[in-house]
Every structure is written in C-alpha cells, then in structure tokens.
Amino acid sequence: MPREIQLRDQSEGQRREQLFDVLSGAEIGDTIEVVADRDIDPQLVRYQLEQGRSLEWEYAHPDAEPRELQVTVGEPLGDESHPTIDVRDLKPQRRHEALLDIFDGLAAGDGFVLVNDHDPKPLYHELKSMHGEVIEWDYASQGGGEWRVEIVKTGDSETTGEDIVTRYDVREIPKQERHPTIHHRYGMIPEGGTMELIAPHEPRPLQREFRQRYGDAFAWEVVESEPGRCRVQITKTESTGEFGESDTAADDVSEAPSDNESVEITDELDVRDLPPAQRHEQIFEAYAELDTGSGFVLVNDHDPKPLYHQFEAEAGPEFRWTYRQQDPGEFRVLIGKAETTVDESADEETEVPF
Fold first, then answer.
1. Is the domain of 325 the same as that of 261?
2. Is residue 161 part of a domain?
3. 112-152: per-residue pLDDT in tens?
4. For residue 354, is it within any domain?
5. Rounded to the nearest 10 degrees, how much is the dihedral formed by the CA atoms of 154, 156, 161, 165?
6. What is the pLDDT of residues 259-317, one digit of tens each?
7. 83 & 207 share domain
8. Global pTM?
9. Which terminus of the chain is more solvent-facing, meaning fewer CB atoms within 10 Å of its CB: N or C?
C-alpha cells in the first residue's frame, strides 16, 4: 500500500525536508501519495538533481486544491541524464509557474527534460527574456501529443530585481508569434501581476488591442524609452465596469473572430471518453487536417478554455473559436479555419505592434 505524506501548512524548508527524507528512504518502484497545498514540481526536480534518482509523478487533477499526486521512485539517473518533468497533467497557468520556478532555481550547467502536449516554444521566449542568453534548448521529440525538450541553464541569470511576473523581449520573437504569445501568457497572470514587454518602440497598436480585449482591467506604464528600446509594464487590474461586463462565461476568453459563415462544419469530435492527453492530441490533429473554410464541433465535458490559449499561441489569423453550448457535462465549441481576407493580410503587415 502506498505511503501517504501530508505537506500542507508547512514552511518551504519543512516541506523539502520531509519530502526528501521520505523519497530517500524509498526503494525503486515504491509509490508515495502526497497531499500539499501547492504544486511541488520544483522540489521534485531539485531532488532528482541533488540525489541522482529519477522520479515520476502525476497529479490527480490539473487544478484542484489541495494538490494530490502520486510519486514513483525510479532508477538512478545516469551521469549525462537530466531529470524529467511531465506537465501534461497541469493546467497551463500552473505549468508556467512551475517551470519558471524550476529554471530560476537551477545552477549553471543544470537542466531538465520538459514533456508537454504541444510545442512549448512560448516558454523559450519567456525564459530568454527573463534570464538572458543562458538557455540551451534542444528538442528530443516533437508532435504526437508528446513534445520533449532538454532545457539547460548555461550560466548565471541576468536579473533586474523588479517585481514582475514575467517579461518578454519581443524583439527576439518572430513577428507572427508576438501577439499570440503575449495574450496567451497575459491570460495566466494573476490579478495584480505585472508583465513587462521590451520592444523597439512603444507598442501602441498592442495597447489598443488590450483595450479591445480587456477593457479597463489593466494598467499600462512606459518605464523606459530610448531609441530602439522601450520597456512597458502591463499590470492586470480589476475592471471598473466602464467597458461593460461579460454576459457569459465564454466572454472570459477573448474569442477568435466568429464569422461562422466563412466556416463549414464538416465533423463533430466528442472527446469526453478520452483521457486528457489523448483529447489534446486528437483535437490538434483534427485542426491540422482541416481545409481552409472548414471546421468541426468539439464536444467536451468541461469548458475547454485552456485549449483556446494554446490555439491562439500557435495558430494563425484563420483560427476560429465559437461557443455553441455551455451546459454541465457538455460544452460544444466550433473550431475552424476561416478564409482570411486581403484586408486582414494587409493589417498583419501594416498594423504590426512593434
């Protein structure tokens, strides 16, 4: 019977000491059930680095608290091996928080293998913007619902000491990825949190886009401006209601344009009987196989809003997402590829925010 340990209501040091003691006393193949008041991925990666023993773990739920997970002790790590963290069982916001914490705690030369259900390229831009030119990023496998990336910290981080959640130097991000990357990550930061952008000049078109999407629920401050470099800090705030309030839960997602007349529904994809990793794989495969002007209706047992952010980060302007039904146990969303107009293409070229 698996041993259970309780890590709730403990200090960081107490959690680490108890967890490390139990893991060190376990045999290969032993499984330990852990209950904690927060994710413990950074501690599990740190244990592997310090003790040279591999671990596998899985959370019972991607977001529910307290956090419940099973940790299985594996074989010793080889001299050239890095610990592995599989984040597919975490909701997107928790993934970023855990991975930023893990990378921040790495010493120069340390690294880990990230396993994700889609290309984690936005994380690369985020780490590089936060820490500087100290990231080694190598894909070991790509696609099929299992992307593996070996991430190594090659030197000391370039830190500023500012109180921000994340930073993006958009000058280093390909133009077509800038908007999706920024909105994808901004949607995850907590109220009161600040995102910093570094751009060649103040990104006023992006500021207009923020107003359209988020109303008055953000503060925009230029903290540095010089030729070729502008730093903007965007803080998520509580809306005053000046721009109106959302009528439905779906409004929490900044929907892709919903010109349904340009999308012909060709299929229905019901993923309710599949495990989460397989759901994502099938949905992304179905989208990849769509012809322009076609779409499918996704049927899920809960709001698939996190998928919207993944699509927004990776798909182009043809991406469409429209809620059709929102009932307990049955959510229906039209996902499609619309025809993009000449005007839209022109806007992409002339209304670039940076």
1. yes
2. no
3. 999 998 889 889 999 999 999 999 999 999 988 899 999 99
4. no
5. 20
6. 455 688 888 899 887 777 678 888 988 998 998 889 999 998 888 887 887 787 777 78
7. no
8. 0.64
9. N
